[in-house]
Design a protein that fits this description.
Distance between the termini: 33 Å
Number of strands: 0
Structural class: mainly alpha
Helix content: over 70%
Radius of gyration: 33 Å
Shape: elongated
Length: 738
């Protein structure tokens, strides 16, 4: 089903687009206003100092903002910050009329404190308002709204520079804030199952204003994101200074500078919008999230090298413009989604620190470099700044290579977090108890008790008439009897190390009345007779009931030969045989991880299963033991059996615990956790497996639409601390772990 099919979701998406557009329009107009005000009243040599002061003020604001997000939801903190910023903008407008120099510094500090901090909080709000699956589909629309806002803010600033004094733009910025506040008011709470946008944050592992830093210290994935942000900010600071210096030398102060910066930011907005609409989805599909994020440092490196070779206003425009365009389109599309698998209890106190705190750390680093290099600014100094910017971008590019693995690991952690909240062991026990409450086939209570007693070796047998011949012949004669009690006597006399008996024991697996006794004996014989047992398993002339029970014999084996034979059994024409082979391989590899099961073979078997569905799953499965029974009141359909088998297969090639939880989530009623499960599968399964699996997960509607990222069929990332409310019926249908 389309994730934004409901009217409430559509209204929320439109509201988020408007809010993003107004917020970014305010930011773009604010940057042009900030630069024009400052360079009209101060020399360009003052820029490094005010940049560093602004970064310090922003760092303090980040600590306060992250602490607020740790205690309150973004739905409360972001509107409060916007309202405060609106009041301050109006106050700065009044101050500019009497103290323009003081107002210029105040506006510079204001943009540092309320700029990226509020943008980061807004995207945190969006991540919590929409579940991960929905977020992946709507994030492009929201980013499109932001890009349109950037264009509108730049054009408006350019037009205003010709009509009104520069300080009047502060009132226009306040109006954009009010528009954003009104749109956020219509965003509404999340739908059931998603994390409540208006609820307090989950309990933190650490408390206090430095809680986010402590969490950051414990999560390497967040450290990589923080490093990319810091390196990007340092690069932007260097390129921004070069551009401002060249612009101040080329244009007169006041409206001319305002017009230049407005046109520059408007042009960046147009180009960012074009990339967002034409390249973003292709990039996400082909390069993935980490690859898309890496495009920013890669392109900036090229532009900075060009600036090093030919320093001028135009190369400065190209380098700074490239950085801004990629950042506001492709980089933002991938970067924001990299946060969605982080648990709310970790994301709320850390995202602002990563987004803004480390941005300001990078800004301060860039400012310090400027103080060292800028005094000698000329062509040589400019070349040095371009070279340092290229080096910082190359370092960021190296860090981007680590992001994909960290992203998948974070998804796995988020799935585990959901289970911890559900007390997985308790749920599993409930499922097992319900399964044990039923018996398979036509079992009655007396038959079940007799087989349980047989497993314990407590069942006696009446004396049987003597059989002529040697001991082996006598045992074989007993095993070939139609009388169950005589067969059991033969089983007690049988020597598990006698290979000649295996051929007589295997056919007895097809008899329900002695199955458990035969199973026990064959398991003791398996280490010495693996080849004979596998020959019977793979022999199509053997009775299918026998063949689908043979894998149980090998379930306690740790032999690579047994694993190889079971792998061949995954191609058997009988679904029951394939299912039992997969279950046994799963048990064996869990017990003995050193067993080699080629991932390529597993994925090929999975694709065969999915392509043959649902006809290949119609065969009735064995119900010979209590563990095989479907939960009471929940008859197992062919589709349910088949999907369970597919996930058992995948557990041979993908980490088992998060995969099993993903299976439960897909059957459950929590859209947030379902979105995380889909996103996890999107990132760990090969293309051919995903293409065959999605239709069975109800993802067909989005799979056939216009080009979208590879993960756009079913995705987005989860807040890992989200509550997982899964139906009991879905849990009862979890993949069998017999």
């Amino acid at each position: 089903m389309d994730p934004i099919e409901s009217p409430g979701q559509r209204r929320a998406v439109v509201a988020a687009m408007v809010a993003a557009g107004a917020l970014i329009a305010q930011q773009v107009a604010g940057r042009a206003t900030r630069d024009a005000l400052f360079l009209s009243t101060f020399p360009v040599s003052s820029l490094p100092l005010v940049m560093m002061a602004a970064a310090g003020a922003s760092g303090l604001a980040v600590l306060a903002f992250s602490t607020a997000l740790a205690r309150r939801s973004p739905a409360r903190v972001v509107p409060a910050a916007l309202a405060t910023g609106t009041v301050l903008l109006l106050a700065e407008w009044g101050l500019s009329l009497v103290q323009p120099r003081l107002a210029a510094v105040a506006v510079y500090l204001h943009m540092a404190v309320f700029g990226a901090t509020v943008v980061s909080g807004f995207y945190s709000l969006v991540n919590e308002r929409f579940d991960p699956h929905t977020a992946r589909h709507v994030m492009g629309d929201i980013t499109l709204g932001a890009s349109l806002g950037g264009v509108g803010g730049g054009v408006l600033a350019w037009a205003a520079s010709r009509l009104v004094p520069v300080p009047t733009m502060l009132a226009v910025m306040a109006a954009f804030n009010v528009m954003c506040l009104l749109a956020l008011g219509r965003l509404g709470p999340p739908e059931r199952g998603a994390s409540g946008a208006d609820t307090p944050a989950p309990p933190l592992e650490h408390t206090g204003p430095l809680a986010g830093l402590q969490v950051l210290k414990e999560v390497p994935y967040l450290q990589h994101l923080a490093l990319i942000v810091a390196l990007g900010a340092a690069t932007e600071t260097l390129l921004d200074f070069v551009l401002n210096a060249r612009a101040a030398a080329a244009y007169t102060r006041g409206p001319a500078l305002m017009s230049f910066f407005a046109l520059f930011h408007a042009g960046m907005g147009w180009l960012a919008l074009a990339l967002q609409m034409t390249v973003s989805r292709v990039s996400l599909r082909r390069l993935g999230l980490a690859g898309t994020v890496a495009l920013r440092p890669a392109t900036v490196t090229v532009a900075a090298v060009l600036g090093f070779l030919e320093p001028s206003l135009w190369t400065a425009l190209a380098a700074r413009g490239t950085q801004g365009v990629i950042h506001n389109s492709l980089f933002r599309s991938g970067y924001e989604l990299l946060f969605t698998p982080i648990a709310e209890r970790r994301k709320r106190p850390t995202k602002t620190i990563v987004d803004v705190g480390f941005d300001k750390v990078g800004t301060m680093l860039g400012g310090a470099l400027l103080l060292l290099i800028a005094p000698g600014l000329g062509d040589l100094g400019t070349r040095v700044l371009f070279a340092v910017a290229a080096a910082a971008s190359l370092a960021a590019l190296a860090v981007c290579r680590r992001l994909h693995r960290g992203y998948v690991t974070a998804l796995e952690d988020s799935l585990r977090s959901g289970v911890v909240r559900l007390e997985m062991a308790e749920v599993y026990d409930a499922t097992t108890s319900m399964t044990l409450a039923r018996t398979g086939l036509a079992y009655d209570r007396k038959a079940l008790l007799r087989e349980v007693a047989a497993l314990r070796g407590e069942l006696g047998a009446e004396e049987a008439p003597p059989v002529p011949g040697d001991a082996l012949t006598q045992t074989v004669a007993l095993l070939r009897s139609t009388d169950a009690e005589l067969v059991r006597r033969g089983l007690r006399r049988a020597d598990a190390d006698e290979p000649a008996l295996v051929g007589h024991l295997v056919p007895l697996l097809g008899r329900n009345d002695v199955f458990l006794d035969v199973l026990r004996l064959l398991r003791r014989a398996a280490p010495h007779a693996t080849g004979q047992i596998l020959d019977a398993l793979l022999d199509p002339r053997q009775d299918v009931t026998v063949r689908r029970r043979i894998p149980r014999v090998l379930r306690r084996s740790d032999s690579q030969r047994a694993a190889d034979g079971l792998l061949l059994g995954l191609s058997d024409p009988s679904f029951g045989v394939r299912r039992q082979c997969a279950l046994t391989l799963a048990r064996m590899t869990e017990k003995t991880p050193a067993l080699a099961v080629p991932r390529a073979a597993v994925f090929a078997a999975t694709v065969r299963e999915l392509e043959g569905a649902p006809h290949g799953w119609a065969e009735e499965v064995d119900r010979i033991t209590p563990e095989d029974a479907a939960p009471e009141g929940q008859p197992e359909t062919p589709a349910e059996r088949g999907l369970s088998h597919v996930f058992t297969l995948l557990s041979l090639a993908v980490e088992r615990e998060p995969l099993q939880i993903a299976y439960w989530a897909l059957l459950g009623g929590d859209p947030g956790l379902r979105g995380t499960a889909l996103e996890y599968l999107e990132n760990v399964l090969p293309e051919e497996v995903r293409r065959s699996l999605w239709p069975h997960l109800g993802a067909r509607a989005r799979a056939t639409t216009a080009p979208r990222p590879r993960q756009h069929l079913v995705q987005d990332l989860l807040r890992s601390g989200a509550t997982m409310e899964m139906s009991r019926a879905a849990l009862k249908r979890a993949p069998p772990q017999d």
